[in-house]
Amino acid sequence: MKTSDFDYYLPPELIAQTPVEPRSRSRLMVLDRSDGSLEHRRFFEVTEYLKEGDVLVFNNSLVMPARIRGKKAESGGKVEILLLRRLGPNTWETLVKPGKRVRKGTVIEISGEGQDTANTAEAIESGEGGTRILRFSDESHLQELGEIPLPPYIRVPLEVPERYQTIYADTAGSVAAPTAGLHFTKELIEKIKTMGVRCLFTTLHIGLDTFRPVREEDPKEHTIHREWGVLREEAAGELARAKMEKRRIICVGTTSVRLVEAASHTAGQYEIQPFEGWVDLFILPGYRFKVVDAMITNFHLPRSTLLMLVTAFAGQDNIKPAYQEAISRRYLFYSFGDAMLVL
Q: Which of 56, 148, 156, 189 is the most core-located residue (most Cβ within 10 A)?
């Protein structure tokens, strides 16, 4: 297995730049793992593939206003900060541009509208993969000073920032949206519930790996970044009962997959326990899934850990033709793109 096995060419015009309205009108490719067959639908028709007793697992993480603009106190040079995760009081792991000019001891001034004095951030350490550890003078103002970050491949400004949030997001902590959930409307979720499908909400805060392809030729040498996850007692109990009763567990997004599979590693068969902690599970082909029976996901970047996870679940012989079919049928890819249901 090589990282190049997960590479493909995507015509740039198929990278979605704006979201579909309404959300549930995006396209949906349905892939049956048993025979590799494909169907082409609209997302709101996902209900035709659900049945009473199914369990849908959502990630309710909310995207932080994690992009902050400032200037170097010494030279006045512009600096852009992307918050990744909180390490302690006023201390954050970040990505900084231009990173090479922000060394240990560099002080960045951050000022917002109507503020008399600037907040500051001091670089106290260089982290892995070009990250910087910053200590802020007062992190309580970060919410009002920041803006919602969009992925680098989206170049069209978003008129309504909330459109890059799922409609059920309520726990701040991500730097990118769990995009498989962007297709759901309140009306669609209500319809799903009336069908007797159980909807569970878990939390996994999305971090650095979303922005970075795997660079090592052997993907096993890649170190996946840790992300904070929470699977509460009620959700864990429902998942355990579903497995015992042989009801399907359908995860909405790769983040939900990683969380419930990580939680299952701490328990025996069907003994899914509540979980709160760091998740660093890297799912590659050959992984044996203990919890997930089906998955809703978007179309992912080449050479990404997300594409590797989906390939592990669906199989290389299914995913490669499915992606080529999506390209030939002009599906839209990535965050604001179309969706895939893998059964």
A: 56
All residues at 6 or more sequence positions from 166 whose CB lies less than 8 Å from its CB, including other chains: 58, 59, 60, 177, 178, 181, 182, 184
User: Could you tell me if residue 74 is inside a domain?
Assistant: yes
Count the domains in the chain: 2
CATH number, domain containing residue 242: 3.40.1780.10
Closest CA to 297 of 311, 286, 285: 311
The answer to whether 151 touches 161, Cβ cutoff 8 Å, is no
Q: Is the dihedral of CA 271, 276, 282, 283 positive or negative?
A: positive
- 293-335, pLDDT tens digit by residue? 999 999 999 999 999 999 999 999 999 999 999 999 999 999 9
- Strand pairing category for 249-252 and 27-31: unpaired
**50 & 114 share domain:** no
Amino acid at site 226: R
- Looking at the chain, the whole-number percentage of residues with pLDDT higher than 90 is 63
Rounded CA-CA distance 6/303 in Å is: 5
The verdict on 204 and 102 lying in the same domain is no
Q: Are residues 118 and 245 in the same domain?
A: no
Whether the ω angle into residue 213 lies within 30 degrees of 0, i.e. cis, is no
Look up the domain containing 31 and give its range.
3-63+157-342
| End-to-end CA separation in angstroms for the chain | 24
Alpha helices (H) in the chain, listed in sequence order: 142-145, 186-194, 233-244, 254-264, 305-314, 316-328
